[in-house]
Design goal:
This protein is α+β, with helices and mostly antiparallel strands. The chain has 4 domains: about 100 residues, no CATH class; about 80 residues; about 90 residues, Phosphorylase Kinase, domain 1 (2-Layer Sandwich); about 140 residues, Transferase(Phosphotransferase), domain 1. Helix content is about 45%, strand content about 10%. The longest helix is centred in the last third of the chain and has 20 residues. The radius of gyration is 23 Å and the shape is globular. About 15% of the residues have low confidence.
Length: about 425
């Protein structure tokens, strides 16, 4: 079954809908769209007043798969909560397996699913693309290296590092990622004993581990009980392989978050340097990355999350810091749905010298190779990528700010989080 046949199945189209009249309409509609650059309508998304289940078929059937995928991504960016959004995302999951997709479309599709935390959807496609062995393979190799880092797979990271540097020896962040993980790490199956002195109690018995909340290349986060104060906390503990530089990173993470003291910045409670851990508030709503997968989240809630991140960046930049790793996985939701920015371990003072940026693919601005200093506009670009993943670039309120934040020219972006927040307020997104 082809991609467009699959779309027809998802949208309830059968052969009875595909008449000769539809075929003629496909040719006319598709030709006009490509010639004049207009965005074709899709039924139920609000993209036009035309209604009826044939519209998606008429538009997409006339397109090559790569063009069709790009158009569906455009539609989902414009209206991520449209009536057909769930069906279109399901279709994109099928499209991700098409080996004929152009490289640029494959990269864009991969960033769409990476932003949603759905690595498993795009990984096979990235591995096919990585086999090219030329410069076009670099985006796939870098994304696969990030996946290996999150898994704690040092062996694969070593292989990918060699492939990347053979193509581009100056590719930023590659050596640094690998060096921090070169020591052996154990797998997730070892549970609490991977990081903690014993299976249940840490910090001299003050904290009791309840369960693991998640892990990545740097370490793991546990739900723990503070016996002394009688409250639940999130305990972030670094892998043993990370502990050579854990002290500076942990102190930065704890001190910056504590100094910001904002509604939309994670609350840090304590630092356990001997354990390589930091205790912070437990956000029962989980990561924004996971919440974004739920298509039923109303648009006004998504906008509230966007404003919350902008507010956190405004405070961060106003106090002279650059976060340097803004992404959906580093935004958490409290039990009441309020979004907070977390993970300040890579934060640096504005203007200070930094190594090539190591952020998640899709959230790193293009100038990182040539900008050796921490710049708030790097966070602004990452904010734009996050906001685009939430509401698209064509949202009537947020869209213009998103497009400005994603400008390839740093000078064209809002200068910092304060300017971002001002722009959103001026556009009508008020707290």
């Amino acid at each position: 079954m082809g991609l467009l046949d699959w779309l027809g199945k998802l949208l309830g189209l059968d052969d009875s809908h595909r008449s000769d009249e539809d075929t003629q309409g496909r040719a006319e509609s598709g030709g006009a769209s490509e010639e004049h650059g207009a965005t074709p309508a899709i039924a139920g998304t609000g993209a036009s007043d035309v209604d009826g289940p044939e519209d998606p078929w008429v538009v997409l059937k006339a397109m090559p798969p790569g063009v069709a995928v790009a158009r569906v991504l455009d539609w989902l960016e414009a209206e991520p909560d449209g009536p057909r959004a769930s069906a279109l995302r399901a279709w994109l999951r099928t499209a991700a397996q098409d080996s004929s997709l152009p490289a640029d479309t494959c990269v864009r599709l991969s960033d769409f699913f990476i932003a949603r935390g759905e690595w498993e959807v795009i990984e096979p496609s990235l591995r096919r693309m990585a086999q090219r062995g030329d410069a076009l393979a670099l985006p796939a190799l870098v994304r696969l290296m990030e996946l290996a880092r999150q898994r704690g797979d040092v062996s694969e990271m070593s292989e990918l590092q060699a492939e990347i540097l053979a193509i581009d020896i100056d590719c930023p962040g590659v050596r640094e990622r690998y060096m921090r993980m070169r020591a052996p790490v154990r797998t997730a199956g070892t549970g609490a004993t991977l990081l903690a002195p014993d299976a249940t109690g840490v910090a001299g018995g003050r904290l009791e581990l309840v369960r693991e909340l998640g892990r990545g290349g740097a370490g793991a986060v546990f739900l723990a009980r503070d016996v002394r104060l009688g409250r639940s906390v999130a305990l972030k503990i670094y892998h043993p392989a990370q502990r050579l530089d854990r002290g500076a990173r942990l102190r930065t993470e704890a001190q910056v978050a504590a100094a910001l003291a904002s509604l939309h910045v994670i609350r840090v409670y304590d630092l356990f340097e001997e354990l390589g851990a930091v205790a912070m508030e437990f956000c029962a709503g989980g990561a924004l990355r996971d919440a974004m997968r739920r298509s039923e989240v109303p648009l006004h809630i998504r906008r509230e999350w966007i404003r919350a991140v902008a507010h956190a960046l405004a405070v961060t930049h106003d106090r002279g810091w650059v976060h340097r790793d803004v992404k959906p996985g580093n935004v958490l939701l409290r039990s009441d749905g309020v979004a907070v920015l977390t993970d300040f371990g890579l934060a640096r003072k504005v203007g200070t010298s930094v190594e090539p940026h190591e952020g998640t693919p899709g959230f790193v601005p293009p100038e990182v190779r040539t900008c050796p200093r921490a710049d708030p506009r790097h966070d602004v670009f990452a904010f734009g990528a996050l906001a685009r993943a939430l509401v698209g670039e064509n949202d009537p309120i947020v869209g213009p700010v998103v497009r400005a934040a994603l400008s390839p020219d740093p000078e064209a972006r809002p200068r910092d989080g304060v300017a971002l927040l001002e722009a959103l307020t001026a556009a009508g997104l008020k707290g």
